[in-house]
Amino acid sequence: MNKRTLVILIVSIAIFAAGSLSASHTLAIGSVNYYDFYDLEAGDTEQYIPGVRLEYYFNDNLGVSVDSIVIEESNWHQYREMVYILDAVFRLPLDPLEPYLGIGPTYRGYEDRHDSDIDSEPFAYNVRFGVDFIALEWLSFGIESNFLVDDVGEFFDTLAHSSVDEIADAVRDYSLIGLTAKIRF
């Protein structure tokens, strides 16, 4: 590599890094409040699925988020199913609306005081999309849909060999619909 190419490379990296540093970095902490699609459709709001989210955006469009969601809990049976999600998040800030898409792996954790041999694959995948409404500079509210898919190959195989109605049912089976509230720093 000659000196000229090296200088151009270093200057390019410096310009890119300066641009990244001047972008708005955002940290957000919030709650996610989900319902299963079929529960919402039936009007059953008893099956509330709570969670918390921590987000960090490196620039205006790209960030990461970490969620912890209680999928199912039973005090009587002393059973709990948790989902931990790590997403890469792409957002489009259109003040005051911010549509976004998040994609990433999940880990399912189980705690059952009566049955220590729960047979389930702990790793799954997540796709979520939604829209945040920026109410104040430090506060946002949103609505989103979250798809938790245990086996991506099986999911797409089901979609490939199904009718439109069966595809709609498959998507509904995996859907959580929720509201978010976040405090932004």
What's a concise summary of this model?
This protein has 185 residues and is α+β, with helices and mostly antiparallel strands.
Radius of gyration: 20 Å
Strand content bin: over 45%
User: What's the total helix number?
Assistant: 4
Overall pLDDT score: 82
Distance between the first and last residues' Cα:
43 Å
- Low-confidence residue ranges: 18-23
**SSE order, one letter for each helix or strand:** HEHEEEEEEHHE
Please state how the strands of the largest beta sheet are arranged side by side: 1-2-3-4-5-6-7-8
Sheet with the most strands, sense and barrel status: 8 strands, antiparallel, barrel
Structural shape: globular
> Could you estimate the helical fraction of the residues in percent?
10-25%
Strands, count: 8
Tell me the structural class: alpha+beta
Describe this structure in words.
The chain is an alpha+beta fold and 185 residues long. The chain has helices at 3-22, 37-42, 152-160, 164-174, and strands spanning 26-36, 49-57, 62-74, 79-91, 97-112, 123-136, 139-149, 175-184. The longest helix has 20 residues, at 3-22.
Topology (SSEs and partners):
Blueprint lengths: L2 H20 L3 E11 H6 L6 E9 L4 E13 L4 E13 L5 E16 L10 E14 L2 E11 L2 H9 L3 H11 E10 L1
Antiparallel strand pairs: 1-2, 1-8, 2-3, 3-4, 4-5, 5-6, 6-7, 7-8
